[in-house]
Specification:
The structure holds two protein chains of two kinds. By secondary structure, chain A is mostly helical. Helix content of chain A is 52%, strand content 0%. Chain A has seven helices and no strands. Chain A starts with a helix and ends with a helix. In chain B, strands 1-2-3-4-5-6-7-8-9-10-11-12 form a twelve-stranded antiparallel barrel. The chains are: A mainly alpha, B mainly beta. At the A-B interface, helix 3 and helix 7 of A face loops of B.
């Protein structure tokens, strides 16, 4: 019984430790931006290009198969991130949060940022 | 060859082994994009100045080390030199540059504040910015290297992204602390866009998405002693950048002089290599982490 309780508590502690940090409350997405639809949502094949952009610009902090997560960046496969709308993800990629170390990627063309959103969505289904 | 120059050339050669990774093709204009936190970017750049009035062509190399201290602060060190045939090859000094992005998010117009301290000499030819007045000079690099110029420079950088285009405007003020020549002014304007806006799924090097192209317009605006366009130099410079690998970029820009003062042509070439996670690697080294 004690072993089961210990195991359960350990699992809870690991799950708690691995859970994504709550999204910065000072980083709210404007409602209008959150409601934007991904213009590429009907073209899932473009997620491959998003993967390439992700590996080049995001993986060094958010991690992938080749990189560990760094700089307290959240795991983008977690429900907290996947529950965000496409518009919210696009807005966060575009604006960044420079006070918390997330750069703005508005230098990427808009279609590439939407491709990133497509790819991030695919992480939630793996 | 003197010792600082030898050290500079050795350092340049060492750094040239890895070399470049910016998206922007600009050489003079700054946009609002900062170096990513913890990344170190190493750039080797050459400027070849083909002058008017039968003045000699010169070559001015520089090495830049740019580090993303935080998401809102990038800091850089420049080491520069100059060389001219039948004259001399000289180390022309160093510059310390800091850029601060005061706003947390992207807006229609994004300001960045720029401060630079320059400890150079009058032989400096890298033309990192063009300010004040420009008068043709036939003084040799070897005679100018002894004339120190400690300068403070500030820029207001305004930059916007729209529909895949970047538009940037820089307003420059510069004060020479070693000579009383007033406060000098200059400007730089730039626009660029990538040649393709969608990323292909394949790992290609020569596909259009890896190229950005644009044009810069820059020049001096006189000084507090004589403000305006008279006796100033202005250039228009098409520019192209090619992301040659995941972390290196090659840029090229021919700049054409628009006024009788200044050089006829400024040919610029650079190679940048970006080291991701440099800051954390250094921290781990001192902590002894594997």
């Amino acid at each position: 019984m004690r072993a089961a309780l210990f195991l359960m508590l350990t699992c809870c502690a690991i799950a708690f430790a691995q859970q994504v940090k709550p999204i910065d409350p000072d980083w709210p997405v404007p409602e209008k931006a959150a409601q934007e639809q991904n213009p590429l949502s009907g073209k899932p094949e473009l997620a491959a290009g998003g993967r390439k952009v992700f590996e080049r610009t995001c993986a060094q902090c958010h991690g992938d198969t080749k990189h560990e997560r760094k700089n307290n960046a959240p795991d983008l496969a977690t429900p907290a991130v996947q529950q965000e709308s496409d518009g919210s993800l696009f807005w966060r990629i575009s604006n960044g949060n420079s006070r918390k170390g997330m750069p703005s990627f508005s230098n990427l063309p808009e279609p590439q940022r939407w491709q990133l959103v497509l790819y991030i969505r695919s992480l939630g289904t793996k | 060859m003197n010792r600082p120059l030898t050290a500079f050339l050795c350092f340049s050669m060492f750094l040239a082994i890895p070399a470049a990774a910016q998206y922007s093709p600009y050489f003079v204009t700054y946009d609002h994009h900062m170096e990513e936190p913890g990344n170190l970017e190493i750039t080797t750049q050459s400027t070849v100045g083909i002058q008017k009035h039968d003045l000699p062509t010169y070559w001015a190399p520089l090495v830049e080390l740019e580090y993303g201290a935080t998401g809102w602060w990038s800091t850089s060190l420049y080491l520069e030199g100059a060389s001219a045939p039948h004259d001399a090859t000289v180390f022309t000094g160093y510059r310390l540059e800091n850029r601060f992005k005061p706003l947390k998010r992207d807006h229609w117009i994004n300001p960045v504040l720029y401060f630079e301290f320059e400890n150079i000499n009058e032989a400096s030819r890298i033309q990192k910015e063009v300010v004040g007045h420009a008068e043709p000079s036939n003084e040799t690099l070897s005679s100018l290297r002894g004339e120190k110029a400690r300068e403070l420079e500030g820029k207001l950088i305004l930059s916007s992204n729209a529909k895949g285009w970047n538009f940037a405007e820089n307003f420059i003020v510069e004060k020479n602390l070693t000579e009383d020549e007033g406060v000098e002014f200059g400007y730089s304007l730039g626009v660029y866009r990538p040649l393709a806006t969608l990323a292909s799924g394949t790992d290609c090097r020569l596909c259009r998405e890896n190229f950005t192209a644009g044009v810069e317009l820059y020049g001096g605006l006189g000084s507090t002693e004589q403000f305006g366009f008279s006796d100033t130099a202005h250039y228009i410079a098409p520019a192209i950048a090619w992301r040659a690998s995941e972390n290196s970029t090659i840029r090229f820009s021919p700049g054409f002089g628009l006024t009788t003062n200044g050089a006829r042509t400024l040919l610029r070439f650079s190679y940048t290599y970006e080291i991701s996670g440099f800051g954390s690697a250094v921290r781990n080294m001192f902590r002894g982490d594997k």
